[in-house]
Design brief:
repeat; mainly beta; 17-stranded antiparallel sheet; 1 helix; 216 residues
Length: 216
Amino acid sequence: EYEGNRNSEGQRHGFGKARLPNGDTYEGEYECGLRSGHGTYRFRNGALYTGDYLRNKKHGKGVFFYPDGSKYAGDWMHDQRQGYGEYLYANGDTYTGEWANNKRHGQGTYVYKDTGSKYVGCWVNGIQNGPAELIHLNHRFKGRFLNGKPLGRGKFIFDIGCEQHGEYIQPVQVKEIEKEEEDEEEPPLPLEPIWKVSEITKLTAWSPHDEEVLAP
């Protein structure tokens, strides 16, 4: 069903309202038969998008309300979250920063609602990766992350006015002695990196990029 303007060729063009065969509805601008311009699309499952379209795809600025209560407001490109935007998750966590191909990618800040802690730094394909700062209520960690875990040199900075320098080391997985009747092998769980302290100092100026210079 469609109610609205058309061009001389009979295509939807200008402002109109449509009900799709699957029960979704769209109210907004059309250009030569395609959703282009500003509009609001309501999904049958309760989701809603209001923002810019280009040739039937979310493109430009827009807000998407998901059925689980989460929400994204920011840039879109070819139907994907791309550019800069803020995502409010169903559990109350938030991410504000750069996106690519629907994933957190680039510089961004993730705030954990339960603890109040926040991660400020680099992301690659949705995972914490690269130089970053993990800020807690009375101390913070500055260093590098790899696949969501801190790894390599870094430091903890405490509000009482001192720093603990050291590095996160990835433990080596030790294989147990094989039993005579070996069950199906389960993949080993990844071990958590271990923090090794090297020194405690007064507050110093330092950035994760120093690691690159100091690395042998």
